[in-house]
């Protein structure tokens, strides 16, 4: 009889299978950060080189925007001087 009651009741081992919500939330956050990091660096061998290329691309884009603004501002403002 005792064997039947022991398998039907909630055992202390069964109640501790689920981690607390805080622990679970922390684990999910860590896993998400790990996936994000892996996706960002997938296929990248030299991270410094990629950063330098991004900086050059941004600088080039800024120069193009400045040139476009200067071209749209009207005629060039050159001053001629004669001696």
TrEMBL record:
Biased composition (Basic and acidic residues): 22-69
Membrane-spanning ranges: none
PANTHER family, per the entry: SMALL VCP/P97-INTERACTING PROTEIN, SMALL VCP_P97-INTERACTING PROTEIN
Protein name: Small VCP/p97-interacting protein
Keywords from the UniProt entry: Lipoprotein, Myristate, Palmitate
Organism: Glossina palpalis gambiensis
Region Disordered, residue ranges: 1-83
Gene Ontology cellular-component annotations: endoplasmic reticulum membrane
Superkingdom assignment: Eukaryota
């Amino acid at each position: 009889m005792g064997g039947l009651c022991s398998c039907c009741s909630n055992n202390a081992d069964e109640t501790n299978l689920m981690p607390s919500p805080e622990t679970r939330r922390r684990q999910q956050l860590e896993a998400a950060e790990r996936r994000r990091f892996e996706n960002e660096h997938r296929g990248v061998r030299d991270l410094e080189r990629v950063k330098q290329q991004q900086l050059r691309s941004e600088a080039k884009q800024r120069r193009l925007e400045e040139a476009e603004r200067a071209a749209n501002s009207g005629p060039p403002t050159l001053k001629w001087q004669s001696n």
